[in-house]
Amino acid sequence: MISPSLWQPFTLGRVELPHRLALAPMTRNRANPDGSPGPLAATYYSQRASLGLVISEGTQPSADGQGYPNTPGIYTPAHVDGWREVADAVHAAGGALYIQLMHVGRMSHPDNTAHHRRPVAPSAVSAEQDMFTATGPQKTPVPREMTATDIEATIADFRHAAASAIDAGADGVEIHGANGYLLHQFLSPNANRRTDRYGGSMENRSRFVIEIAAAVAEEIGADRVGIRLSPAMPLGGIDEGDIDSVRTQYRYLVGELAALNLAYLHIHHVGDDDLLRSLRDLWPTAILVVRYGRTREQIADDIDAGLADIAPLGQFALANPDIVERLHTDAPLNDVDPATVYGGGEAGYTDYPTLTRN
């Protein structure tokens, strides 16, 4: 049985939400060649607007931020126009849209980008991961270490992308600091071997993330900004050290970010509930928590335990555009078709059946 706490309204930044569910950000690889959202994106997101808070797929803030084929951007006028259609459709269906700003850093391959440049990263250390490309899987190359000028430019790119998202009609942005991508790479000692003010100590490794969050908050207002973190998440070749190192790192980082009074902190949680509790205690506004492998009966567990305010849904929402109604009525759920998650057209994107449309 679904806990009644899931249906309580909630104020998140400038957005009034009807309940405690949200759409988790999920890469779908269906953008146009120029990086604008694909022709079905407005349909896809508006179908899921009953979730209230709709967090978009990872969206690059610059050309160097792209890692995978056919992912969208939010830094050109064409991108803004495309996302405006999405925002208008989500709003018309009663939802609020946050665009996730995702710079992949070293998790890229030149064959996946229009410019074909080497990826950039905190240090010239390959992720040693298989990367999907048009010619099949290829190893991620050794990236180019970012200069101090590159770091300044990337912070400016995030600022510009956030402003572009608001211009497109989005209600806010989520900064992707998780899952092995650029910001997470700066946090991780095995990916960040710098000896300047952005590397070495825990404080220095956190600096880039804090500076991006501060710049974005200054640009569009802190109450329009969320940030996603994934303590101890080993994706993308990341190794953040032992449990004590991870706890120390993230308690420091979240404490510094808390001073910015952002709209929310989004934790991709891998099981350290003691750390999650301490971050909850440090954070002054909303916390979103997503975990792997939850059953429908467990969706509200973190809310009931006081560890979260909102429970974002990933695969449940991907395969069930009417997931809110299905949870309300205890209706059966569609299963995800893994063959259609990434790339393609309508199949597995906008054609999942609803309770009223088969």
UniProtKB/TrEMBL annotation:
Pfam families: Oxidored_FMN
CDD domains: OYE_like_FMN
Name of the protein in question: Alkene reductase
Source organism (scientific name): Rhodococcus artemisiae
Any coiled-coil regions, as ranges: none
Gene3D superfamilies noted in UniProt: Aldolase class I
Occurrences of domain NADH:flavin oxidoreductase/NADH oxidase N-terminal (ranges): 6-333
Database matches in InterPro entries: Aldolase_TIM (IPR013785), OxRdtase_FMN_N (IPR001155), Oye-like (IPR045247)
SUPFAM superfamilies in the cross-refs: FMN-linked oxidoreductases
